[in-house]
Amino acid sequence: MPGRVSQAADSPLTLLRAAIPKIFDQAQVSANNHQKNFVALYKLHIEGSKHTELVRNGQGVRLVGEKTFEEVLNRLLLLVLPLKKGTSQADRILKFVGGYTKFVNEKAAEEKSAQEGDDEDEDTTASRFTAHLLKFLLKGFESKDKIVRYRVLQTVAEMVSHLGEIDEDIYTSLRAALMDRVSDKEASVRVQAVIGLSKLCGSEDPAEVEEGETVLDVLLDTLAHDTAPDVRRAILMNLTPNATTLPHILARTRDTDPTIRKVVYGTVLKDNLMQGEEEKTMGPTHPRALTILQREQIIRNGLGDREPSVRAAASALLGLWADIVAMKSEEDQDQEDVSVERGVLNLLELLDVGVSTVAADALLSIFTSRVDIFENIEFGDRFWTSLTPETAFLARVFVGHCKAINDDVRLESTLPVVTALAFRIQESYNDLLDDIRDHDDQILLGGLTEDERNQKEDELLDREFVLAEILRLAVNLDYADEIGRRKMFQLVRDMLSKGELSEKLIPCCLDVLRKLSSNERDLIRVVVEIVHDLRDPDEEDEEDPIDDAETSYSATPATVKPQRMGLFTKPPAERTPEEAARAKTIDLKCLTLCIGMLERVNSTFEENSTLDGVLQDLVIPAVQSKDLDMRSKGFVCLGLCCLIARRLAIGSVGLFMSQIKSSPDELKLELIKTVFDTLMVHEQAFTKQGIDLGPVTESLVNLIGTEADEKVQALLCMGVSKLVFNGMITDNRALKNLIMAYLSPNTVSNQELRQCLTYFLPAFSYSASSHQKKMCEIFLSTFSQISDVRRKLEDDQEMVSGLQVGMMFVDWTDPLKLSKAADAQGHISDSNGVNDFIQLEMATNIMMALLKPENKDEDDMKILVQLLSKLYIPDKVDDDSIRTLKLLLHNYSMRRPLSDATSNRAFTKFDTAISERFAKQLEDFSEEEYKQLVELKDIAEFLDDLIPLDDSEIIDIEPKKKGRKRYVASDSIISTTTEGDCSDSPPSSKQGKKPKSKKRRLSTSDDEDPEEDDTQKGSPAPPKRTLPKRAAVINKKPPQVIVISSDDDDDDEENTPGPRQKRLALSPRYQTNVKKEEKPDQEINDMLDDDSSELSEPPHDSIMDPDSDEEQDEVNDLLTED
Amino acid sequence: PRRIPNERDLVMAMTDADAEGGALDYFDQNFLKNWAGPEHWKLRKVIRRPEADTNAATKATKTRGKKEGFKIDFLSPPDPEKDLKEIAKELFAPVTKGAGINLPGTGATAKKSKKKTKEKKDEHLLPDDMHFSSRQLVTLFLKPKFFLKMRGRKARLDENGDDVDEN
DNA sequence: GATGTGTAGCTCAGTAAA
DNA sequence: TTTACTGAGCTACACATC
């Protein structure tokens, strides 16, 4: 065809061929010239299109010019398509092509509207161009070259929004082709496909889609499920937020990828706040357009993000929210009150200040990120007289923030004086009380409709909330003024003494009271008095509103009131049901009060004799109560008392423990907390007094495996973690059980447990060399036990891979991590305490495990070999250690029972690496020689015990129960069994520093290492170690939620029904507790006998003995107040 | 602990945890990644000490010089040997053998497998963040307002770490 | 066992943050 | 300006498949 064109026509076509490349050449350099070049190219296009040929004897027209234009363009495009991702020149060209598509179609549309009236379906140069280009590109969608696919899809994505009108069939094939590419192997291709689709989906009518999914369906599915973050992000950025898509978009605030989360806040939510030409109308992500749940979701996830950049983006968004909600709503934008307070308050109204901390977090975030807002907040004169929940909340958080950043100047200028505020509180409290009573009367009279009643109750709740906020604010007031101080003290004290005070207000009141008390003794005394007042109200005239007469708080009688016949002096049996109910309500309130008080003090029980009365009259009866609520609170109270009363604690731990098993979960949680706290506080003292806490901690540790409730599990793990972390449990089994729980398939959904341990395990490991040693010690047995669990995995259960588990241990035992942590913590002097050789020990342990013939799980062995190369072996090691390792390596390469090439390779690599690195030290290595060395005697014996490779396979087949066959190899000595799988500890001494020849055992079981399974030990007790026995033990295992070692260490004690008794026998002190545990009921009665005749002389009055100063100090030192 | 500690909590921690809790700050800072449980655990290796780092600085400026010298050659005349269609055919050639261009598990048999795998598809969402921190390790359950001073732990890095402070 | 594919580890360059 | 982190590309190896 080109050859056939006439001379006259030739020149415009040649022009096209020469001019278009020049435009492209410019376009690739910068996007700035694109607009200019659109015009230039368009001119060429139009000029060229005028060149046509008549064909078929004039019956048809051939659009030679257009065709040439398209061909030239396609050819140029082909030059770009193979250019790899990231080539900006190529990107610009494709952008240019997309832009030109837009340009040419817009021009066509303009022309069309200019000459209106013509029929619609007429082809134009533009539509033909678009169709041709699309068809051309569609052919490249399935190219085998991923780069070509990427570029083709990129071009299409640039074009999609500007296609003008295209044929139905082209649209259909384009849509199908794009949908197809959503499952492209290459993420970059998928990115372009979804960009294209997201531009397409706006125009798609779901009704028109006959079958299959709509584009939107696919996009939303991909948004959640695509493996590549890039793809998800691309959808996120190109999806129009609306009622349908928004929930899916908001779900991405918890995407695993931080950049996606950032995009949600920094792009999607931010850029769609407003819409319309001048951004004047409310956009789809305007806070008022969202539901309250969505707003809270956005704030909670954003401000709670681990990534600082996400938090910053969320914070910035919140600042914008405050700006745009400052204007009331659509109409009155030019309204008077557009102050910063208005914005913040409007925002608070959009949240729920009453529940959750979201509103407070949002406010604090705005204060920090938008200092302009914070600094311009002022509380006018009227502010304090007309408090709403939002304004009170704002004031409280504002004051708290000022306090936090030590902005005393601002604090002083905003806060009202104490006295004024006290009167304010008093007034609103009295009003509230009156209104509550009125309301109760009204209800009795039945004069309210349902609506009226609800409305009134909401209002009362609001006012109560305001009061609570002001009380919280009052904690931060300046109490230098004695008058104000007294006034406030008296006020709060009186409030607490009123039966009507809502329980919600109790903590706030107590905080104020604590602030105003001169010391803890005073606080305790006052609260105890209040408790007495509440339970014995006759003396007070409770109908009176709080009197503002000046009462000196120091004048409050400190003595306990004499007992009189009142509600609580009447024997419970004689109470009417109404009286009993009332008594219960009051007792619960008193317990709450006591709990609140005890949470806030730390002086010892003995220093505060007044507490004893409360314990006897209130707490102990509560603990004995049948009412769950009461019991629960009673136990918490008793537990809190224990924390400051050592003797009480000693007597109570057994009680708490005995109650755990039989209690419902709710109470169980409190009991467990109590035990852990008691141990945390008194462990040293207990130990000093010769009390063996082993049985207690042991049963707590074992509970991890038997408790079914997630909350209980998590709590147990947390508690045990704390005890292990702080050195109060040193038994390796605790650590091991924690790791088992951590990885168990049964805890996958228990985030609390898993996240606790995710923090604890490395923190523990990196906080002491001895801790890493423990990790090293338990590694192999834990590893194999986890593998056992994995083998028994159900279909629907998941678990991390064995290699992953191994890597975790390698990470935890990494001495570099430890020294880094030690340095960061300022323990530089101690960094020589870091054991650099710990992973050399690991390597030795692993080698010994590999050599044991009964370790035959291919997968496990493979993983262990792979782990070798990950271990850190320092450059300088002592001769013995490295020679030991080499000896093991050497033996292993001789006997290598490995079949697969991968492991072999990995092993050889490690072996040669070691051999080369320590060539000097291993120079004269010869197996026979080293076996003779005293230092390596254990190893030598270990190796000698091993059955030679050739025979070991027979052993594997032969069941163990038949007894170990012994084979006399040429150079091996017959010896006792070498049973057992992965044993944890090397028999070697530490780096050979203390050469000692131990008794021949496969593994040392010194005190630090109670790890060893009985069946694993080389202890000469053959009958015990037969296979059936072991199997029986496994079968005996009770149904456990987490499979914790059944063939665990110290079998003889662990799997017997009464391990505790056995252990306790060693400790006379503890025996009493054992008895208690055996007969819990009896014990409760013994201990908590509340027979009133004995009140004056409680069975454990000994706790009232003033403790030695030393002991008090100890408790005081241990706890530090906030 | 379902919420990130806010400034009030942190201030409380700062005023009083200075004695011992400060040492644990390191963990709080460094365990920010890897909080989400074992399935999200990733090995993060510490970078070995870069001994010689003085001469590496000047290199940055040098590489800046060569910046985007590349240009696509649109201007050379097209290869007369190769027709547009041929090039296109070459570039657009679909795969003939081996693995396709789609993700495994998709394509022709997708309809069946989709329903099965749909339930198992990863949503790529983080678990609820419990915001566990050193704070939880040194506070009591019942008295969260107080911190435990672990005097015994000052000897933490000693060789015999299981020792207990004896005064 | 040969083959091709998928993936992990490594290095380098570019970018974002300090 | 320097530094740290991320992402792309490369290489080698493991794994699956025939």
From TrEMBL, chain A:
<keyword id="KW-0226">DNA condensation</keyword>
<protein>
    <submittedName>
        <fullName>Nuclear condensing complex subunit</fullName>
    </submittedName>
</protein>
<keyword id="KW-0498">Mitosis</keyword>
<feature type="compositionally biased region" description="Acidic residues">
    <location>
        <begin position="1104"/>
        <end position="1122"/>
    </location>
</feature>
<dbReference type="GO" id="GO:0000796">
    <property type="term" value="C:condensin complex"/>
</dbReference>
<dbReference type="GO" id="GO:0051301">
    <property type="term" value="P:cell division"/>
</dbReference>
<keyword id="KW-0158">Chromosome</keyword>
<feature type="compositionally biased region" description="Acidic residues">
    <location>
        <begin position="1005"/>
        <end position="1014"/>
    </location>
</feature>
<feature type="compositionally biased region" description="Acidic residues">
    <location>
        <begin position="1046"/>
        <end position="1055"/>
    </location>
</feature>
<dbReference type="GO" id="GO:0007076">
    <property type="term" value="P:mitotic chromosome condensation"/>
</dbReference>
<dbReference type="InterPro" id="IPR011989">
    <property type="entry name" value="ARM-like"/>
</dbReference>
<keyword id="KW-0131">Cell cycle</keyword>
<keyword id="KW-0132">Cell division</keyword>
<feature type="domain" description="Nuclear condensin complex subunit 3 C-terminal">
    <location>
        <begin position="589"/>
        <end position="873"/>
    </location>
</feature>
<feature type="compositionally biased region" description="Basic residues">
    <location>
        <begin position="991"/>
        <end position="1002"/>
    </location>
</feature>
<dbReference type="Pfam" id="PF12719">
    <property type="entry name" value="Cnd3"/>
</dbReference>
<dbReference type="GO" id="GO:0000793">
    <property type="term" value="C:condensed chromosome"/>
</dbReference>
<feature type="compositionally biased region" description="Acidic residues">
    <location>
        <begin position="1083"/>
        <end position="1094"/>
    </location>
</feature>
<dbReference type="InterPro" id="IPR016024">
    <property type="entry name" value="ARM-type_fold"/>
</dbReference>
<feature type="region of interest" description="Disordered">
    <location>
        <begin position="976"/>
        <end position="1122"/>
    </location>
</feature>
<comment type="similarity">
    <text>Belongs to the CND3 (condensin subunit 3) family.</text>
</comment>
<dbReference type="InterPro" id="IPR027165">
    <property type="entry name" value="CND3"/>
</dbReference>
<dbReference type="InterPro" id="IPR025977">
    <property type="entry name" value="Cnd3_C"/>
</dbReference>
<dbReference type="Pfam" id="PF13646">
    <property type="entry name" value="HEAT_2"/>
</dbReference>
